[in-house]
Structures are given as C-alpha cells and as structure tokens.
C-alpha cells in the first residue's frame, strides 16, 4: 500500500503560510504566536504529529526545523527528532539532523512519487511552500490539514498558488480551537 502524503499548514484568512514560526525576512514573523491555540489546538497538533511516520520537507523548512527541534525535548520534539526525515533539495549535502535523507538528484516529483510507493505509512509535509506546490500540481497529496488563524496578513507566500488543474477535496473534519482558529481537514475526493 502506498504511503499517504499529508500537507499541514498554518494559514491566515487570506491564505498566507509564510513564516508562522518566526522565520526571519518576513514582514510579520511568528504571526501565529499572537493567538492562543488552546488545549484542543495543541492536542490536534500533537495527535497530527503522532500520526506521521516521517517528515517530507523542503530545504528551507528543514533548515528552520533542524535549527530548533534537536535542542528541544518533550513529546512533540521527541517524535520530530526520532522519525525519518526526507528533504527535497538540490543544495543540501550533509544534513546534521539525525535520520535525514536528502532526495536531491533528478526530478523531485518523480523521487517523491517513488518514495510514496516504497514507504509504508504517512509522510507529513509541514510548511515547505515550493514542495507543496509541486506535490499538488503532480496530484500526490492525499490530505490537507489547515489551522486557519483569524488574521489577514496582506502579504506573503500563499499556501496554494496556481495549479495546472483543479483539485477537488472533501471536508473530513472541522472545528474551532483556541482564539477562533479553524481546524480544517480535507481528504482527496473519491
């Protein structure tokens, strides 16, 4: 059975997903920290992380995560640090974060398609703007998990850019957590 690819994003009402955790160079770095996710929101992220069998990420997300998670501990950090990580990058050569494999030669979409056939379990894709756009365009995404924050940023990379074809999804779950944050889970339409 092929792996499932699950994209997970923090997103503003106007679709921006850039720099939710404080990454430098963006007008509003760390904008998600302005909102309390509440117990339900924190539990959703923890459960989501436990469901993942590996991370599939782009180089920038890798660098952000590798700069933060190895120094942390706790249930969430322990899972991130222990699970396999697959990084799509032509420039990353010697990853320092344990259990990291670089998918760096040739066609990234073809490599992810092959990984999806060979890997058993869920490949979670947090952040990773460029990679997500490629995965959606190639119709490789099985599920999209969104935490939509009640803010309009007005600038930044959009979670979903132009695609060659439309993609229909089915709403699997929705709820509101914390300070008005919508949790939306969409599955590939059957």
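Sequence proposed for the structure above (190 residues):
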């Amino acid at each position: 059975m092929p792996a499932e690819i699950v994209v997970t994003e923090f997103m503003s009402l106007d679709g921006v997903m850039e720099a939710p955790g404080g990454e430098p160079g963006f007008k509003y770095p760390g904008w998600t920290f302005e909102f309390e996710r509440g117990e339900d929101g924190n539990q959703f992220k923890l459960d989501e992380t436990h469901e993942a069998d590996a991370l599939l990420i782009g180089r920038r997300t890798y660098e952000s995560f590798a700069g933060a998670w190895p120094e942390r501990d706790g249930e969430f950090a322990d899972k991130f640090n222990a699970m396999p990580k697959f990084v799509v990058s032509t420039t990353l050569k010697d990853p320092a974060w344990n259990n990291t494999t670089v998918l760096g030669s040739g066609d990234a979409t073809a490599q992810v398609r092959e990984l999806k056939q060979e890997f058993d379990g869920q490949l979670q894709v947090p952040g990773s703007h460029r990679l997500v756009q490629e995965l959606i365009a190639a119709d490789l995404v099985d599920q999209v998990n969104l935490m939509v924050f009640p803010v309009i940023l007005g600038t930044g990379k959009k979670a979903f850019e132009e695609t060659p074809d439309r993609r229909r999804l089915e709403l699997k779950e929705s709820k509101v957590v914390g300070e008005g944050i919508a949790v939306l889970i969409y599955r590939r339409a059957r």
